[in-house]
Design brief:
Elements (H helix, E strand, L loop, with lengths): L38 H67 L6 H7 L3 H81 L27 E2 L17 E4 L5 E3 L4 E7 L6 E7 L4 E10 L6 E2 L4 E5 L10 E6 L7 E2 L1 H6 L7
Antiparallel strand pairs: 1-2, 2-9, 3-8, 4-5, 4-7, 5-6, 6-8, 6-9, 9-10
Helix pairs in contact: 1-3
Length: 354
């Protein structure tokens, strides 16, 4: 790193905002594991803690980024000051050279005895001595000013170097924080998905894990099923993965992403197995049903009442899935085959999908 020159701040893109959630699926019609879950509950709790850590890390990361930006601005101001000081010292050196040359031309280099001998009159001698004294004073002042400027330049260069070093250290710390959380979270996600796949293969869903989650903070009666997402396969699209047309809207999200109930309602189905893997179906007061499929875990049981925005599980890639995503459906009945396009359905309820 060149400490006395500007360089771009190496701050990685911000982490995605994450929150506390983990779950274990259940099926009222199938065999259930004990509610406490033993080791299975342990990994769910670990995922929950890592999501909480990631949320805190995101706040720290953003604060650190702002701090680093301020530090970079300070370092850049110091660099501008150093450039100005270097120019001033260069001017001082030029002035000093001019004064020295003028002194030489005016006989300032002659000893006092030679000046007395060569002087034509006392007046000429006095004038010569006055010029000599003034020249010496100017030289001494210029030398002292130059020394002070060079000392200040040296101190400011050290301050600028410290500023850049502090900036670089903070950038490295932020990158390490991000990498550490991401690695741990990815390992936990894979373990959670492995448990989900095992339960689907065995046809024995686990009971829901009741973990603390943040209070629901929504002001609208309807919300998106996940907070941050990219839309992938849409309603009615074709593909080799489906026997007919696609019956819902897919949201591309990482394994373990908190899945929310889009509105208030009652859980009518929590099951694992089949093309949808681990899935939840919720009945809403207006007579519609919503489905959340390919999950890795759930936090609700059949019969539970849920609120809009309440976390009901975590996304995954169970069942007939080519990668991590949430398959979301809106139906007229609880069963497959009665689906309507979720995009205009949500839009009509004040939830446009971007």
């Amino acid at each position: 790193m060149r400490l006395s020159r500007r360089h771009p701040l190496l701050v990685p893109a911000l982490l995605c905002a994450l929150a506390v959630l983990a779950a274990r699926p259940t099926d009222a019609a199938e065999k259930k594991a004990p509610a406490d879950g033993g080791t299975d509950a342990g990994i769910s709790a670990q995922v929950a803690r890592l999501y909480e850590d990631a949320a805190v890390a995101t706040q720290q990361y953003e604060a650190g980024r702002l701090e680093a930006e301020a530090q970079r601005a300070k370092a850049q101001r110091l660099e501008a000051l150093l450039d100005r000081e270097r120019r001033d010292i260069s001017v001082l050196h030029e002035d000093l050279g001019r004064i020295a040359r003028a002194q030489y031309r005016n006989g300032g280099d002659l000893p006092l005895t030679a000046q007395i001998i060569l002087a034509d009159s006392p007046d000429q001698l006095m004038r010569g001595q006055q010029v000599f004294s003034q020249t010496n004073l100017a030289v001494n002042n210029a030398i002292e000013k130059s020394r002070r400027a060079e000392a200040k330049l040296s101190a400011d260069e050290a301050q600028a170097a410290t500023a850049w070093q502090s900036l670089e250290k903070r950038s490295v710390e932020l990158a390490g924080l991000k990498t550490g959380i991401e690695q741990k979270l990815e390992e936990a996600r894979q373990q959670l998905q492995g448990q989900a796949d095992a339960s689907v293969a065995a046809g024995a869903c686990r009971g829901a894990v009741r973990l603390d989650q943040p209070a629901v903070q929504v002001t609208s009666p309807w919300v998106t099923p996940v907070e941050t997402y990219e839309l992938s396969a849409g309603f009615g699209s074709g593909g080799s993965r489906w026997a007919n047309r696609h019956t819902g809207q897919d949201f591309a999200v990482p394994i373990g992403t908190p899945v929310r109930s889009v509105g208030a309602g009652r859980v009518v189905t929590v099951s694992c197995g089949g093309a949808f893997g681990i899935e939840i179906v919720i009945e809403h007061a207006d007579g519609y049903y919503t489905q959340y499929a390919h999950l890795a875990a759930v936090t609700v049981d059949q019969g539970d009442q849920v609120a809009a925005g309440q976390w009901i599980g975590q996304s995954g890639t169970t069942g007939n899935s080519t990668g991590p995503h949430l398959h979301f459906e809106v139906r007229v009945t609880p069963e497959l085959g009665s689906g309507v396009d979720p995009v205009p359905w949500l839009a009509a309820r004040g939830v446009p999908l971007g």
